[in-house]
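Sequence of Threonylcarbamoyl-AMP synthase (Saccharopolyspora karakumensis).
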Amino acid sequence: MAKYFDVHPDNPQPRSIGQVVDILRDNGLIAYPTDSCFALGAQLGNKDGMDRIRSIRNLDDRHHFTLVCQNFAQLGQFVIINNAVFRAIKASTPGSYTFILPATKEVPRRLLHPKKKTVGVRIPDHVAAQALLAELGEPMLSSTLLMPGEEEPMTQGWQIKDELDHVLDAVIDSGDCGVEPTTVVDFSTDEPEVVRVGAGDPSRFE
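Predicted 3D structure, token representation.
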């Protein structure tokens, strides 16, 4: 059964955040709110967590997992960024964007796109998500909580707890979440390509 944490949207309770991080460090899988929609999260080295995300979402091996980072300095440890890309991403973070970039050796190989050796990264503009990342002290392996066959993610924590109680270890609820996933921008080639239009304004990358 998943533990349910009702977290204040502006001042997340440190005790609750600490308990969720303990679950993550114990190879747990969580659902948590972001500035776009709810997401699934696991610790970076948690292979079982990655497999559980694949199973819940029915994903194939070409899916780009995302490393959700606390800040730009942390993001820079896991992806290769040139000066032009640096400026574009810096101006758009934190925010509702996921950026696909070549990965550094810090990223476990199983998280990489099998052919491109790329990974998704993002910095959420969400108080509870940021509190979680600050306490964890490292990026979180993440994927949008969008169920197979559904067009929109679930927006309420109690609903997620109700429907996914048997496959999650924790649910963080800090109020209603959005229904749009992040806008995804692929920076792995010479020109940026908007590969998914979502909550972030895509016009700055078009």
